[in-house]
């Protein structure tokens, strides 16, 4: 889209719309003006998460690998300016600031109910102004080391990462977002600056503002606060990943009351609208086979083999696509065996049309609920941008999808050959 | 699009509040039973509350029940339990999209209201009690939840700490009573206690969202006015007295990090002042605890405080390395003394007020928050709008904050300690 042109993305049925502008600085800006809401939520994000450990720019001759955990480390460090702490600045405008790093993004955000323009200036300013020294980097290594240790005390998180470790051979998604104590020990100020200058280029970033705000005010502040960024031709890539899993079974012992398990199916990754469609297919398959209205769920919870709080999830992104069933059970191997049987039955007997129609309606309802909250509107714009779709594509694809579409993906999405069972076992 | 509020009594100690705001794309019905919290009824109320939102006479099979909700565009019916003062609050709620957004012209709100009433008044019964199958599933679910408390260390530590902090008071009893009382519960006993609750509890009903509530209000009024009522007296605020001597409880587990919960109690009654005092002390990223104990001295991975207005208690929760426990404990107390000595800046106070007012101002931004706001007003015995609360906060002086901090007395310390590792320095 040409620079500085404004486009309106809308959905007639819902009567909702938001505005997109490709700013001259290189930044994509999205604004959702929501009448009647008092809060404003702003997200300033870069397409840079824990998985982006291999990259090159126009200036590099070849791809370079860096240690795990830098995206998250940078997130911690950017909150410190040379002269003050960002929280002190937000304290004066009344905004509630925060940030998070995921596998594929780092996002700086604030929520507020007054002075949003002032807080937006703070946000744009500090993210564009990195400041690291040896002393501040050394101190952060200690703090992040503690954070890694704290996460090690969470059995559900450990179960998830064990599953990823079992499923992936090379893809960096298998490593915790914060990295490891060893990998963060290799991080220094130079490395941080190098990654910052690569990934915090405005051409690789997005600003999303939703709620009590005006697009014209947001654009004006961007004109004032953003510096023109040169497109450095950033490319990222991942080590080649086989279709098969690294380990079919993986476990560790922790202080838990009962074994926790995750069963993960690895499938071929996709991108853009194709990924959205595949996500929907995976969600429908998981719901139809293992969801709360499935015979599988009923039988296993009634017999006590599966805890009623079991959950299903599609976990996917650039270079990875997985469908996961998790829960608590005295006999995870048995649950796994029955889960595989369910796939065979579905292939032989087909899928339940009535339940599919009901699930489609329920999914539409969930989508509608998202428009009730300022935060979800802002974060939906951000995820849509990073996946190359619009917020409304989801409901368009949902309307189009048929049970045959879902059925045709079963061999790829739920392939027992590419399956891992991860278990957290109680300490005896 | 302002919020339109209405409140009326539709039965003996049964209030119906409607909160209408056209900006919302969903509606919510929330029915809250405020009951006396006792050791021998808690398990029954808790299990019953999850049984009645799983099936009903009309949909006796759980998967059919869930399917019906699915066909109402993924509407939800759920229950929740919480404690306030020495009371237990059992909430039943339903959530659904606006009728105007339904693709096939369904009357989502009315259907959902009827379904919720079917759950509350016509549960699926057998042999004079709840149906045994669903009852056993929900009972096991609760037992599993109790057993899994140990999995999340911070929450586990809080649950354990509260037992010491409110020793011999109803607030010390977990919402489910005890594991033993859940285990020995029968479908008949649970149903009997549930019927008692319908008769005796104070009931607050809310309909909130962007739709037209007239039909839903009519259904609810019709159903609730039919119950035979003998409301009992409910104690909402039950200020807890500090123990004559500080009590320290240590428990050891296989964890990397220790969790420490320090409790201080106060008879200072100004709730809004207590909240601000606690936030200056440890409730924001620029609070004294965060800035000093975590950032400056790096003694804790996390360290924050919260004020429990219903019990007059300040709790400080921290994640600490074993070797730093005594130092952290000392520094947390030092920071509280500093508060009592007025050792905080005017900026600290103003910034804290701004931060709290920011949260307050956004209280009408989600359907759930609007309901919580007005329910909390009732719990606190106030009737403030968001604007009134903000102006009250702005009027609070540093002297009041200091006085609130001064009145705090140490009560107890709970430490969840890692086995092995370096001992206290």
SSE diagram, text form:
The complex is a heterodimer of chains A (428) and B (425).
Chain A lengths: L5 E6 L4 E7 L5 E6 L6 E7 L7 E3 L7 E2 L4 H9 L7 H8 L2 E6 L4 E7 L3 H12 L6 H19 L2 H13 L13 H5 L3 H11 L5 E7 L3 H11 L9 E2 L12 E6 L5 E8 L4 H19 L4 H8 L8 E7 L2 E9 L3 H18 L3 H17 L4 H14 L5 H8 L2 H6 L1 H4 L5 E8 L2
Parallel strand pairs in A: 3-9, 11-15
Antiparallel strand pairs in A: 1-2, 2-3, 4-8, 4-9, 5-6, 5-10, 7-8, 12-14, 12-15, 13-14
Chain B lengths: L3 E8 L2 E7 L5 E11 L2 H13 L10 H10 L4 E9 L2 E11 L10 H14 L3 E2 L2 E2 L1 H16 L5 H13 L13 H5 L3 H14 L1 E8 L4 H11 L22 E7 L4 E8 L5 H12 L5 H9 L3 E9 L4 E8 L4 H16 L5 H16 L5 H14 L5 H10 L2 H9 L2 E10 L7
Helix pairs in contact in B: 1-4, 1-7, 3-8, 9-15, 10-11, 11-15, 12-14
> So, CATH architecture of the largest domain in chain B?
2-Layer Sandwich
Total domain units of chain A: 2
Biggest contact: A-B, 72 and 61 residues
- Name the CATH superfamily classification of the largest domain in chain B: Metalloenzyme, LuxS/M16 peptidase-like
Please state the structural category of chain B.
Answer: alpha+beta
Number of helices of chain B: 15
| Helicity level of chain A | 40-55%
Textual characterization of the structure:
The complex is a heterodimer of chains A (428) and B (425). Chain A is of the alpha+beta class and 428 residues long. Chain A has helices at 70-78, 86-93, 116-127, 134-152, 155-167, 181-185, 189-199, 215-225, 272-290, 295-302, 332-349, 353-369, 374-387, 393-400, 403-408, 410-413, and strands at 6-11, 16-22, 28-33, 40-46, 54-56, 64-65, 96-101, 106-112, 205-211, 235-236, 249-254, 260-267, 311-317, 320-328, 419-426. Chain A is globular. In chain A, 47% of the residues are buried. The mean pLDDT of chain A is 94. Chain B is an alpha+beta fold. Helices cover 43% and strands 24% of the residues of chain B. Chain B has helices at 39-51, 62-71, 108-121, 132-147, 153-165, 179-183, 187-200, 214-224, 271-282, 288-296, 325-340, 346-361, 367-380, 386-395, 398-406; strands spanning 4-11, 14-20, 26-36, 76-84, 87-97, 125-126, 129-130, 202-209, 247-253, 258-265, 300-308, 313-320, 409-418. In chain B, strand 11 and strand 12 (313-320) form a beta hairpin. The longest helix of chain B is centred in the N-terminal third of the chain and has 16 residues, at 132-147. Chain B is globular, with a radius of gyration of 23 Å. At the A-B interface, helix 2, helix 4, helix 10 and helix 12 of A face helix 2, strand 5, helix 4 and helix 12 of B.
């Amino acid at each position: 889209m040409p620079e500085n042109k404004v486009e309106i993305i809308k959905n007639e049925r819902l009567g909702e719309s938001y505005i997109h502008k490709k700013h001259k600085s290189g930044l994509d800006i999205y604004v959702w003006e929501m009448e009647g809401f008092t809060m404003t939520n702003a997200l300033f994000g870069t397409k840079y998460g824990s998985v982006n450990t291999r990259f090159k720019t126009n200036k590099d001759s070849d791809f370079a690998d860096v240690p795990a955990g830098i995206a998250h480390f940078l997130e911690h460090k950017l909150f410190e300016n040379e002269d003050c702490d960002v929280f002190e600045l937000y304290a004066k405008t009344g905004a509630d600031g925060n940030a998070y790093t995921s596998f594929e993004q780092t996002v700086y955000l604030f929520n507020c109910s007054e002075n949003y323009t002032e807080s937006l200036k703070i946000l744009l300013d500090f993210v564009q102004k990195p400041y690291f020294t040896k002393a501040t980097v050394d101190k952060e290594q200690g703090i992040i080391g503690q954070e890694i240790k704290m996460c090690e005390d969470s059995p559900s998180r450990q179960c998830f990462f064990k599953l990823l470790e079992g499923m992936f051979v090379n893809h960096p998604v298998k490593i915790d977002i914060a990295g490891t104590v060893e990998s963060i020990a290799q991080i220094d100020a130079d490395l941080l600056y190098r990654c910052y200058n690569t990934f915090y280029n405005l051409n690789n970033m997005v600003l999303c503002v939703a709620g009590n705000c005006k697009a014209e005010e947001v654009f004006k502040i961007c004109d004032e606060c953003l510096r023109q960024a040169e497109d450095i031709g950033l490319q990222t890539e991942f080590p080649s990943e086989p279709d098969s899993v690294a380990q079919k079974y993986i476990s560790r012992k922790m202080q838990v009351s009962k074994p926790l398990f995750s069963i993960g199916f690895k499938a071929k990754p996709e991108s853009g609208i194709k990924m959205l469609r595949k996500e929907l297919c995976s969600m429908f398959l998981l719901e139809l086979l293992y969801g709360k209205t499935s015979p599988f769920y009923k039988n296993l919870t009634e017999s006590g083999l599966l805890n009623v709080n079991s959950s299903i999830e599609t976990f996917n992104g650039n270079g990875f696509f997985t469908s996961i069933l998790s829960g608590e059970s005295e006999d995870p191997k048995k649950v796994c065996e029955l889960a595989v049987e369910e796939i065979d039955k579905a292939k032989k007997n087909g899928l339940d049309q009535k339940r599919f129609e009901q699930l489609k309606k329920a999914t539409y309802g969930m989508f509608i609920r998202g428009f009730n909250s300022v935060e979800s509107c802002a974060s939906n714009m951000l995820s849509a941008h990073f996946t190359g779709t619009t917020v409304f594509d989801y409901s368009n694809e949902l309307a189009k999808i048929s049970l045959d579409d879902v059925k045709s993906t079963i061999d790829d999405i739920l392939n027992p050959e590419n399956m891992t069972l991860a278990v957290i076992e109680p300490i005896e | 699009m302002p919020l339109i509020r209405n409140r009326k009594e539709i039965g003996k100690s049964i209030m119906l509040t409607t909160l209408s705001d056209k900006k919302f794309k969903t509606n919510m019905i929330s029915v809250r039973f405020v009951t006396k919290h006792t050791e021998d009824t808690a398990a029954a109320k808790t299990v019953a509350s999850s049984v009645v939102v799983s099936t009903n006479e009309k949909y006796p099979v759980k998967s059919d029940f869930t399917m019906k909700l699915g066909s109402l565009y993924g509407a939800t019916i759920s229950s929740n339990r919480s404690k306030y003062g020495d009371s237990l609050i059992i909430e039943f709620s339903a959530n659904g999209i606006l009728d105007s957004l339904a693709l096939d012209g369904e009357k989502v709100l009315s259907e959902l209201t009827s379904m919720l009433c079917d759950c509350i008044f016509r549960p699926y019964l057998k042999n004079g009690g709840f149906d045994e199958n669903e009852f056993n599933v929900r009972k096991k679910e609760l037992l599993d939840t109790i057993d899994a408390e140990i999995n999340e260390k911070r929450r586990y530590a809080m649950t354990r700490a509260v037992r010491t902090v409110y020793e011999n008071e109803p607030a010390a009893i977990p919402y489910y009573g005890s594991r033993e009382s859940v285990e020995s519960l029968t479908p008949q006993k649970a149903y009997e206690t549930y019927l008692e609750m319908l008769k005796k509890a104070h009931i607050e009903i809310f309909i909130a969202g962007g739709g037209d509530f007239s039909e839903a209000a009519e259904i609810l009024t019709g159903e609730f006015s039919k119950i035979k009522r003998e409301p009992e007296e409910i104690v909402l605020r039950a200020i807890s007295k500090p123990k004559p001597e500080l009590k320290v409880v240590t428990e050891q587990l296989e964890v990397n990090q220790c969790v420490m919960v320090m409790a201080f109690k106060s008879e200072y009654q100004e709730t809004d002042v207590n909240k601000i005092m606690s936030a200056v002390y440890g409730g924001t990223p620029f609070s004294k605890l965060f800035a000093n104990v975590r950032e400056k001295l790096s003694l804790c991975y996390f360290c924050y405080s919260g004020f429990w207005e219903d019990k007059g208690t300040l709790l400080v929760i921290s994640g600490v390395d074993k070797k730093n426990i005594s130092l952290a404990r000392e520094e947390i107390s030092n920071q509280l003394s500093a508060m009592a000595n007025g050792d905080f800046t005017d900026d600290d106070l103003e910034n804290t007020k701004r931060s709290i007012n920011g949260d307050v101002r956004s209280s009408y931004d989600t359907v759930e928050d609007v309901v919580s706001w007005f329910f909390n007003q009732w719990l606190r015995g106030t009737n403030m709008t968001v604007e009134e609360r903000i102006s009250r906060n702005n009027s609070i002086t540093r002297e009041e904050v200091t006085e609130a901090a001064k009145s705090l007395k140490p009560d107890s310390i709970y430490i969840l300690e890692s086995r092995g590792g370096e001992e206290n320095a």
